[in-house]
């Protein structure tokens, strides 16, 4: 990217942040309640907490989200490509996916807590399950709708099945996969908050709920800022991946 | 000697438990180092035929021989499609070398041959571009380069120039003739453009409506003659073809 473009992007981001803060400030003044402190109070406590109390919570939350994203990608992408490519397997599995996809996976939280314990495992499994479906369905649909001509022309060069995945299906579906990852990230953050409010004393979700129950609203907002920043950074990371891996889309 | 021979080829598709014949009793033959053009109405099974010849569809009845071998065993064929043939996520360079990569050529050999063919077709300066950054004519040249890099003996082309504007199309037709004179490939091309058929085909095969079969065969001495375009004989043959296609005789 050109330095000029980068500068422009930076300025736009800054303006967006300013708009958010102004909106927040006006709202807090308007409501005039301790539950919604002004941005200044919240950022103050964020700066105070970020170096000590917040760090371990952010680290554990980041770990849970990152591992879940990685596992669901590793499982969802190959399976999605396989189903999109093989009509038979797709037809066979479609009813199963359609029946289980709309079930809100968070209802399984109590079961996972019983079966997998209250450690990281149950949380990661639940987040993974939610994003896995999203990635699976998006990847499968992208592979399904791939123009047949690409496959034919590469097959006529004597490509075997593995070559087709490598040179045609995977690169063709990569933009869709990255889009599903970005959407999945948003969902992962919400599920993360939910799983961290039960039976745990670690994680940014716990931090927020704990501050809330001790009526420390400025602390609570410091936690919310931390969570927002974490999502934003992960989002930027995925964005950068897309720029590098799918440069051909943006020509 | 016939390089390509097809005898009573029959292909059917099964869709919703119904059998739809696509090709019936199709026979044709093409001499080595010659050009043949297949022309026919849309949906007559022309692409099905090329699919069989390229070894993509093994589910057929009848005999198909390319240099004495069945299409699936024959590594000397190359297929060029109208559109979508090039992979949009690969640069010109990566698209062209793909065939060599898939056939397990060494890295050195791949680079050498890719560079040679791109240079020959005047595409070397476009090697870092993606297909969307190329014009229609350039794209089709890259597709031709990708086929030629494998040094095929039989070039199969499915309406290769139909999405190009008139001038670019003629330019590429000339280019194809030059290429043919130089390399002595055997070329089988599908088109729905009558002038293109007369300019490119030493043999012209007219196909019927679906299920397709050859209803008429022309031997065309005008093929590849640049000055022939606009000549009386050229127009007469084109007219004759036109009436065959309309089923007037």
How is this structure best summarized?
With 251 residues, chain A is mainly alpha-helical. Helices cover 80% and strands 0% of the residues of chain A. Chain A contains ten helices and no strands.
Model description:
- The complex is a heterodimer of chains A (251) and B (249).
- Chain A contains ten helices and no strands.
- Helices cover 80% and strands 0% of the residues of chain A.
- Chain A has a domain of 157 residues: MetI-like fold, CATH 1.10.3720.
- Chain A has 251 residues and is mostly helical.
- The two termini of chain A are 13 Å apart.
- The model of chain A has no long low-confidence stretch (mean pLDDT 90).
- The two termini of chain B are 30 Å apart.
- Chain B folds into two domains: 167 residues, P-loop containing nucleotide triphosphate hydrolases (Rossmann fold), CATH 3.40.50; 67 residues, no CATH class.
- Chain B contains seven helices and nine strands.
- In chain B, a hairpin with a 2-residue loop joins strand 1 and strand 2.
- Chain B is globular.
- Helix content of chain B is 34%, strand content 26%.
- Chain B is α/β, with parallel strands linked by helices.
- In chain B, strands 5-6-7-3-8-9 form a six-stranded mixed β-sheet, sandwiched between helices. In chain B, strands 2-1-4 form a three-stranded antiparallel β-sheet, with helices on one face.
- In chain B, helix 2 crosses helix 3 and helix 2 packs parallel to helix 4.
- Chains A and B meet through helix 7 and helix 8 of A and strand 5 and helix 2 of B.
- Chain A: It comes from Sporotomaculum syntrophicum.
- Chain A: It is found in: Cell membrane.
- Chain A: InterPro entries: MetI-like, MetI-like_sf.
- Chain A: Keywords: Cell membrane, Membrane, Transmembrane, Transmembrane helix, Transport.
- Chain A: Belongs to the binding-protein-dependent transport system permease family.
